[in-house]
Specification:
It is built from eight helices and 20 strands. It is α+β, with helices and mostly antiparallel strands and 338 residues long.
């Protein structure tokens, strides 16, 4: 277990925002977390559950205790002839899990390659990319009830997953410390290529029917080509969620913007890329003080060097206002603002 006081949080958030916390506690196993979490809750200190810090904007020093999982390990169990259940510690790096799955012939997570963060956060955030969401892989989530230290287990249905949402972000927020997530992977590879520019990227490489390794690499190449490396330019990945609007709203906008990209959810709802709208508002590649919009992907806000959280929030609010004025659509941050 790691237990530090007056800890620097700069290396614990990929935005690179300078901040400190009163105390930082990281658990190596379930027993440690069970023993200490009720004590932390009883102390009435503010608590912040922190994963890899890749989906976080700190608004200042945290006057409380930051809690982190360092629980590792993978266990695989057969689930019939076709499927395998993979139980993963919440402190594992998500992309390392995807890489391990591909290496071992376990499929279904390829389109989620290179998404930053850890296993525990995948179950909170319902991470997704290129037409895939982790909710379609998760079977169970194991956690500790922080107030009592009791071990609990939730089914996929109980977590009430939706687009970038779960009960862990809403009514269960700060109630449970996730220790393990179990995913259901398939032994048969069925590539999903119909989202974004996957097919075009494969065609450039002369690939018609990709292997799992080739698909994973193409996803990685696409992400690396348009997303900044947080070690070079601080960021939290996609800052805004893509809005889902009613079909009537979409049709009205489509008349004004015939080339507007979109993804049909069902007969009544359509998803419109927030990055496209931000770009149409002229923000792509622009900066406001020390915070800016990435020059290759308008969905990503970046730390141009020495940015404070106030710089990022001011930029966020300006972008929201411009998108609302131009399209009549509210866009909301995907990142956790603390």
């Amino acid at each position: 277990m790691t237990d530090l006081y007056d800890c620097d949080l700069t290396p614990h958030n990929t935005f690179g925002i300078e901040a400190r916390c009163k105390r930082y506690v990281a658990f190596d196993n379930v027993a440690e977390a069970q023993a200490m979490l009720p004590q932390l809750v009883e102390s009435r200190e503010r608590l912040l559950l922190l994963g890899g810090g890749s989906n976080l904007l700190l608004t200042g020093d945290f006057d409380g205790t930051v809690v982190h999982s360092q629980i590792k390990g993978m266990e695989r169990h057969d689930d019939g002839a076709e499927y395998v259940l993979l139980r993963c510690g919440s402190g594992l790096v998500w992309d390392e899990v995807v890489a391990q799955c591909v290496a071992e012939g376990l499929y279904g997570a390829e389109n989620l390659s290179l998404i930053p963060g850890e296993v525990g956060a995948s179950a909170v955030q319902n991470i997704g990319a290129y037409g895939a969401e982790v909710k379609d892989l998760i079977t169970t989530v194991e956690a500790i009830e922080m107030e009592t230290g009791r071990i609990v287990q939730f089914t996929n249905a109980q977590c009430a997953y939706a687009y970038r949402q779960s009960r862990f972000k809403r009514d269960w927020k700060d109630r449970f410390f996730i220790t393990h997530v179990t995913y259901r992977l398939c032994r048969t590879f069925v590539p999903h290529l119909d989202y974004g520019n996957i097919k075009a990227a494969l065609a450039e490489k002369g690939i018609d029917t990709p292997t799992p390794i080739e698909l994973r690499q193409v996803i990685i190449d696409i992400r690396n080509a348009k997303l900044p490396d947080p070690k070079v330019e601080g960021n939290a990945g996609s800052f805004f969620m893509n809005p889902i609007v009613e079909r009537s709203k979409f049709e009205a906008l489509k008349d004004l913007y015939p080339d507007m990209p979109h993804y049909i959810i069902d007969n009544e709802r359509v998803k419109i890329p927030a990055g496209w709208m931000i770009e149409q508002c002229g923000w792509k590649g622009k900066a406001l003080g020390r915070a800016g919009v990435h020059h290759k992907q308008a969905l990503v806000l970046v730390n141009k060097g020495g940015a404070k959280s106030s710089d990022v929030l001011t930029l966020c609010h300006r972008i929201q206002g411009d998108v609302k004025a131009k399209f009549g659509i509210d866009i909301y941050p995907e990142v956790n603002i603390q």
